[in-house]
Amino acid sequence: SANIVLISRAFRHQFIIPDFQGFTKHIEDFYWKCKPNTEGKVASYIPQLARMNPDYWGVSVCTIDGQRFSIGDVNIPFTLQSCSKPLTYAIALERLGAELVHQYVGQEPSGRNFNELVLDYNKKPHNPMINAGAILVCSLLKTLIKPEMTLAEKFDFTMNCFKKLAGGENLGFNNAVFLSEREAADRNYALGFYMREHKCYPDKTNLRECMDFYFQCCSMEANCDSMAVIAATLANGGICPITEEKVLKPDSVRDVLSLMHSCGMYDYSGQFAFKVGLPAKSGVAGGMLVVIPNVMGICTYSPPLDPLGNSCRGLQFCEELVNEFNFHRYDNLKHATNKKDP
Amino acid sequence: SANIVLISRAFRHQFIIPDFQGFTKHIEDFYWKCKPNTEGKVASYIPQLARMNPDYWGVSVCTIDGQRFSIGDVNIPFTLQSCSKPLTYAIALERLGAELVHQYVGQEPSGRNFNELVLDYNKKPHNPMINAGAILVCSLLKTLIKPEMTLAEKFDFTMNCFKKLAGGENLGFNNAVFLSEREAADRNYALGFYMREHKCYPDKTNLRECMDFYFQCCSMEANCDSMAVIAATLANGGICPITEEKVLKPDSVRDVLSLMHSCGMYDYSGQFAFKVGLPAKSGVAGGMLVVIPNVMGICTYSPPLDPLGNSCRGLQFCEELVNEFNFHRYDNLKHATNKKDP
Amino acid sequence: SANIVLISRAFRHQFIIPDFQGFTKHIEDFYWKCKPNTEGKVASYIPQLARMNPDYWGVSVCTIDGQRFSIGDVNIPFTLQSCSKPLTYAIALERLGAELVHQYVGQEPSGRNFNELVLDYNKKPHNPMINAGAILVCSLLKTLIKPEMTLAEKFDFTMNCFKKLAGGENLGFNNAVFLSEREAADRNYALGFYMREHKCYPDKTNLRECMDFYFQCCSMEANCDSMAVIAATLANGGICPITEEKVLKPDSVRDVLSLMHSCGMYDYSGQFAFKVGLPAKSGVAGGMLVVIPNVMGICTYSPPLDPLGNSCRGLQFCEELVNEFNFHRYDNLKHATNKKDP
Amino acid sequence: SANIVLISRAFRHQFIIPDFQGFTKHIEDFYWKCKPNTEGKVASYIPQLARMNPDYWGVSVCTIDGQRFSIGDVNIPFTLQSCSKPLTYAIALERLGAELVHQYVGQEPSGRNFNELVLDYNKKPHNPMINAGAILVCSLLKTLIKPEMTLAEKFDFTMNCFKKLAGGENLGFNNAVFLSEREAADRNYALGFYMREHKCYPDKTNLRECMDFYFQCCSMEANCDSMAVIAATLANGGICPITEEKVLKPDSVRDVLSLMHSCGMYDYSGQFAFKVGLPAKSGVAGGMLVVIPNVMGICTYSPPLDPLGNSCRGLQFCEELVNEFNFHRYDNLKHATNKKDP
Question: Which partner for A238 in A253, B219, D178, D204 could form a disulfide, CB atoms 3.0-4.6 Å apart?
Answer without folding.
Answer: A253
